[in-house]
Amino acid sequence: MPVTLKQIAEQANCSVMTVSNVLNNKGDMYRPEMRRRVLEATKRLGYRPNAAARATRAGRCGNVTLLSSVHDEQSNLPTGLLGGLQESLAQHDLRLSFARLPDEKLTDPQYMMKLLRLWSADGILVNYTHGYPLRMIELIEQYRLPAIWLNCRLEYDCVFPDDVAAGRLAAEHLIGKGLNRIAFVDYAAGWKDLDQMHYSLKDRQEGYEQAMRDAGLEPWVVREDYHVSGSDRLAVSQRWLEDCDPPQGVVAYSGAQSVELAMAVRGRQLGRDYDMVVFADRRITMASGPVATVVIPQWRLGEQGTAALLQKIESQQARLAPVTIQPELALPDPEDEGRQKEKDPSRPS
Questions:
Q1: What is the domain count for the chain?
Q2: Residues 255, 278: contact at Cβ < 8 Å?
Q3: Pick from 149, 177, 262, 302: CA 20 to 30 A from residue 318's CA?
Q4: Residues 120, 44 share a domain
Q5: What's 268's DSSP letter?
Q6: pLDDT, tens digit (0-9, with 9 covering 90-100), for 301-322
Q7: Range of the domain at 200
Q8: What phi and psi values does residue 248 have, to the nearest 5 degrees?
Q9: 201 close to 208: Cβ distance less than 8 angstroms
Q10: Has residue 340 got a pLDDT over 60?
Q11: Cα–Cα distance between 248 and 333 in angstroms, integer?
């Protein structure tokens, strides 16, 4: 049988109201001795607060729903982002639930009107990065649903990485090393499908181009007409490297694309005349050697997304200004290079 406040009051020799105030963070109005007696009594009796009852009294559910598309490519969820969300919400005694919904429901006025109640949610974190139906945004605003979009660049109610700054950071690192033939390589999207993809593809390229032009250098963008699959990236890399004077450095859209690039470059035996910077959510260590990484801090994205949503819930403000997450440059660990030399003694020093 659950322990009652009355039982605690009897053990602590005080009133039920005193016990309630102490357990609900209002104990400052009592002497330290009284607070100690109440807390010791709760420990002896094994009292556990009823979170559901407390949430009901506060008019809250104690739950935040992470809303995703049924199409995985439109709702990327890095482990760092998930960790940042869960830890930040736990600090506020909030749970995180997950909802994967098709566009038909997200554009249905009847469903969206009941969304918070259906998922027992105080607010929504939208992990729907691109390709989202515009009607969905309209309905969220129409029904004043407290929602924050993650990793999505909108005019309001969103938290996203500053990928223009990330592109600049990558290019400026290579320019600072005295390089002038620097290519930006992106196989994730082609020129003909670029507008349908995540904003970071354009923004990282834009930041790279800005930095190159500011330094008086000519941008060099390597992009096919359409997305290049993983099985074709090595061949594509070999082809364009054979058709031109090789670059001194490469900015690669993602760490996933860097493996095939590195293999193609090693095939041309460019050695130390070649430097690479990649984008990832943590510092990359490659078998082909150390690379610099522009880190997109996903954990911080989760923290800031939580903070924005709590502000939205508490203030009931119609719109919040966008929050941008700044990238960080992570240089190779010297120990990585030492380990690589042990594995590949033929690599030039």
A1: 3
A2: yes
A3: 302
A4: no
A5: T
A6: 999 999 999 999 988 777 999 9
A7: 163-296+330-343
A8: -80, -25
A9: no
A10: no
A11: 21
